[in-house]
Amino acid sequence: MIEVAERMPIPRGLYCNFPLGRPLGRPNDAAFQRRVLDAAFELLDAPAPTLVTFPDVILDEVDAPLACPMPARLDPSLPPAVDEARGLRPAYERAQTDGLRTAVDVDAVEPALRAFARIVDGTPWDQAEVPDNPLTAALNIRAYYEQAAAALADHVPAARAGESWFARETAAGALMHAAQQTMKGAGAPFPFWFYLLPASQHRLT
Amino acid sequence: MTADQDMRAAMATLPVPELDGHPFTTPRPLAEATVAIVTTAGLHRAGEDTFGLLDPAYRVLPHGDSDLRMSHNSQNFDRTGLMLDRNVAFPADRLDEMAADGTVGSVAPNHLSFMGAQQDLSTILLDTGPAAARFLIDQGTDVVLLTPV
């Protein structure tokens, strides 16, 4: 946020209008990342504090959910989100290559989905046995889904496309919307319902 | 507006801490310098505890360790970029290439990660921030590349 950077006493800053979460701009694009780094290191020659804007702009695509093949329902007797999450497990496992991964507690995903389903069905949120806390549980579910989506997609997703796929196209996303609305209505602490989903995905009434 | 444009607009008037002075040094030439990454992507080594809610601590990331995890607590940024390519926020491979072609002198033996989306900065300003700076200096770092997340 350049407005914040301009008010801070930073010695050398390269402002990049890139998606949040992608400070070097493009995943799997070494040449582009190198351009950004070269521009940043050029600032070492500046004789005084400086803040420069990198010329390229990359925007997120929050309104273009990732096109991602979903597994068929395996067990209609299960809550939809639980059945869906189980179906994504092979894709999630394929995404577990060497390298950086979001810290996912795989064993907590299904219990968390079941807990949020109980909340939607009327169980008070603090009695629904949400693993850890609602915020951590929600992040864990989303990370599991996005890791699976990364394996299912045949291209590098645009920024926020995976987030939108999760929130708008999956049964788990629908469940999180319903849980968010329910918890808000029940007077749950603000952080625990507000941060169940990214602010860009909220449908609160 | 895009989601990030909305987020930036909402955060544009965030209060910032008042700091004394304006730090600025002139390091040795980049081709002779040791460079470290400090990221706020919430990265840590596999098996370490995840970052807690509003956690002001930093984690040490040995340069050769390729088995890292991200446990950043914020919902409000794209996570898939890092899932696909750590270099989009933690450009360790890019620094290796720059050291190999002589652009940078060397890559530091360790990098650091904080977690962004903080609210109260007092612990970072008074404790973990200075401790991180001392760590970087003690390991011979000349230049820090800060990647904000």
Radius of gyration of chain B: 16 Å
pLDDT below 50 for ≥5 consecutive residues: which ranges of chain A?
Answer: none
Greatest contact between two chains: A-B, 62 and 61 residues
Q: What does the average pLDDT of chain A come to?
A: 93
Beta fraction of the residues of chain B?
15-25%
Helix content of chain A: 40-55%
Question: Termini separation of chain A (Å)?
Answer: 29 Å
Radius of gyration of chain A: 20 Å
**Count of DSSP strands of chain A:** 3
What structural class do you assign from the helix and strand content of chain A? mainly alpha
Helix/strand/pairing category of chain B = alpha/beta
Rough outline of chain B: globular
* Total number of helices of chain B: 4
Q: Largest sheet of chain B, if any?
A: 5 strands, mixed
Integer count of domains of chain B? 1
List the helices and strands and how they pair.
The complex is a heterodimer of chains A (205) and B (149).
Chain A: H1 2-5, E1 12-17, H2 30-42, E2 50-57, H3 80-87, H4 89-94, E3 101-102, H5 106-120, H6 134-152, H7 161-169, H8 171-185, H9 190-194
Parallel strand pairs in A: 1-2
Helix pairs in contact in A: 3-5, 3-8, 5-6, 5-8, 7-8
Chain B: H1 3-11, E1 34-39, E2 43-45, E3 59-62, E4 68-70, H2 80-84, H3 92-100, E5 106-107, E6 110-113, H4 122-138, E7 143-147
Parallel strand pairs in B: 1-5, 1-6, 1-7
Antiparallel strand pairs in B: 2-4, 3-6
